[in-house]
Amino acid sequence: MLLSIAIAIGIVAGATILWSYFQTPSIEIHNPRFVITPKAIAIYMMIHNHGFGADCLVGVDIVKPFTAKTEIHKTEIEGGVARMHPVDMICVAGRSEVELGPGGYHIMVMGNFSSDIKELAAVLHFQRSGDINIIVPIEASQRETHSH
Length: 148
Description:
Blueprint: H1 2-23, E1 27-36, E2 40-49, E3 55-64, E4 70-78, E5 81-86, E6 90-92, E7 96-100, E8 105-110, E9 119-126, E10 130-137
Antiparallel strand pairs: 1-2, 2-7, 2-8, 3-6, 3-9, 4-5, 4-8, 9-10
């Protein structure tokens, strides 16, 4: 009887460990970069989820060299015209990636900024993975003028 209970507990514990493994996200950020536009800074990157569970980017804080309001945006084509609008989050399914770039999802830092900014420190807030600190360099092509 005790052996049967021990086996049952072992099976339940093993199943719980496997279940949590397959539900856990594993977020990595690749190629973060920013461009300075006339009215804001646009931040781009690749969010890669190596885990099996989904996770969502729900916010971003700029912490250096200044603090500023940020919004998660998505660009969509409406009637042949590209329009940006804020979104609450960007979700990344397990074992997949989402690219933030021109014409799609991106992070906007609102305000007028000096063109001598070369690097930002940011904190990405994920629902399940928590906070991820990143350094965001200016995009190499930003050495010339960019409009958003």
